[in-house]
């Protein structure tokens, strides 16, 4: 057992302690075999390079990365561009949303809805651009981990410690992460250009500078959400809808113009017709109101239809409010779960793996896998945070009297994209 413990650091360092003993038991290589002599010389040089570092290839890779010329990192030009500032800058390009008070309620409502649509579009573009930039940075890190794994595997094959099949697995992972990096760059560029169009940026230099003006990540969701009565919330949303308010006024005028009690008579007649429907199957024909006095009164029919349409619209609006509020609560819980629970746990796991790796108790591949898991969890946390703020934007649009967007904001699983355990 003590001998195995003494040998373990050498295994972690990716050396081959059994090679000299094995070589001594074999038939000596003929001196005139140039191919075998060159192979032995390459193996010897590779292991000599690794031997200069206490933990083998991984330290060699880190040393090479530290001694590369530093990449030029552009300085952030001033404070980060917030969503509110983006909205203010974008509104300067929409003079039609400003001016004197509209002449009638219809024009006022149309201008208000246009303003809400513009602000929502700008805020969504800002949120998408911030997420895309963060996702690109995280994918860049994932790609660098894959590059390190592939390079380490190549040197392992060169030293004779690995088979070509194991190297191919690392190279497939490297190619997959490289493809994801290209896609992340494409997504980031598209999101940045959409925001640039809203802000009125005209030159390529302005659009390029926008990448440095955005914050590194979206704001953290609040620790808790207020939990008011759901019916109170729905009533607030209904009251804020200017279209419903105008529809309520028009319906009231139509109903008020009818003789007293006429609408109630029509309601009773309809209830009687509904009572004739079969209870054990579908009806063979539509229900009929037998009182022809009620069916011949056109104003009565129009008022009844307007009243029913208003009831349907208010019911739909209340349902939308409950759905939007429920999704906001769900996305808040997911964002808090991934950002304040899952990500810290995976980060702590990576730190513990690093400590054990430094103590030569875990392998290089376990460290790379822990890093991949942490990057995957960080990506999931960023997407969950983005989903929360999208749900928040949908909710705010409802409260302001705007339309219901019903945006799909399902966050991905935190385990998506984690490293395989086949090393």
UniProtKB/TrEMBL annotation:
User: Which SUPFAM superfamilies does this entry report, sorted A to Z?
Assistant: Outer membrane efflux proteins (OEP)
| Alphabetical keyword list | Coiled coil, Signal
Q: Which residues form a coiled coil?
A: 296-323
The answer to keyword Coiled coil applying to this record is yes
Q: Which residues form the signal peptide?
A: 1-23
Q: What is this protein called?
A: Outer membrane efflux protein
């Amino acid at each position: 057992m003590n001998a195995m413990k003494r040998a373990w650091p050498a295994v972690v360092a990716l050396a081959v302690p059994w090679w000299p003993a094995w070589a001594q038991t074999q038939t000596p290589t003929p001196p005139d075999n140039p191919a075998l002599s060159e192979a032995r010389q390459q193996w010897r040089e590779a292991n000599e390079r690794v031997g200069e570092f206490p933990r083998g290839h991984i330290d060699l890779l880190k040393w090479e990365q530290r001694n590369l010329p530093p990449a030029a990192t552009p300085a952030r030009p001033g404070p980060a561009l917030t969503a509110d500032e983006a909205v203010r800058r974008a509104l300067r390009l929409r003079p039609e949303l400003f001016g004197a008070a509209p002449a009638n309620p219809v024009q006022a409502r149309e201008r208000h809805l246009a303003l809400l649509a513009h602000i929502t579009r700008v805020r969504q573009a800002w949120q998408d651009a911030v997420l895309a930039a963060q996702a690109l940075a995280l994918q860049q890190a994932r790609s660098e981990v894959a590059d390190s794994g592939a390079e380490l595997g190549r040197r392992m094959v060169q030293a004779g410690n690995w088979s070509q099949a194991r190297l191919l697995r690392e190279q497939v992972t490297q190619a997959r992460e490289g493809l994801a990096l290209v896609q992340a760059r494409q997504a980031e560029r598209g999101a940045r250009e959409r925001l640039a169009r809203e802000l009125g940026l005209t030159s390529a230099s302005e659009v390029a500078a926008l990448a440095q003006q955005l914050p590194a990540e979206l704001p953290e969701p609040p620790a808790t959400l207020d939990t008011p009565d759901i019916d109170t919330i729905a009533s607030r949303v209904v009251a804020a809808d200017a279209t419903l308010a105008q529809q309520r006024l028009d319906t009231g005028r139509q109903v008020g113009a009818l003789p007293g009690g006429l609408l109630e008579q029509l309601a009773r007649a309809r209830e009687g017709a509904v009572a004739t429907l079969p209870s054990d199957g579908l009806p063979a024909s539509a229900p009929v109101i037998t009182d022809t006095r009620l069916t011949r009164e056109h104003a009565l029919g129009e008022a009844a239809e307007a009243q029913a349409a208003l009831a349907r619209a208010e019911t739909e609006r209340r349902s939308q409010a409950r759905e939007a509020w429920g999704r906001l609560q769900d996305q808040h819980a997911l964002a808090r779960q991934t950002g304040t629970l899952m990500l810290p746990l995976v980060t702590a796991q990576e730190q513990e793996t690093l400590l054990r790796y430094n103590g030569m108790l875990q392998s290089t591949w376990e460290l790379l896998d822990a890093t991949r898991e942490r990057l995957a969890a960080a990506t999931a946390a960023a997407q969950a945070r983005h989903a929360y703020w999208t749900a928040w934007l949908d909710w705010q649009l409802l409260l302001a009297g705007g339309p219901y967007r019903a945006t799909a904001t399902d966050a991905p699983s935190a385990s998506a994209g984690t490293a395989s355990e086949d090393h």
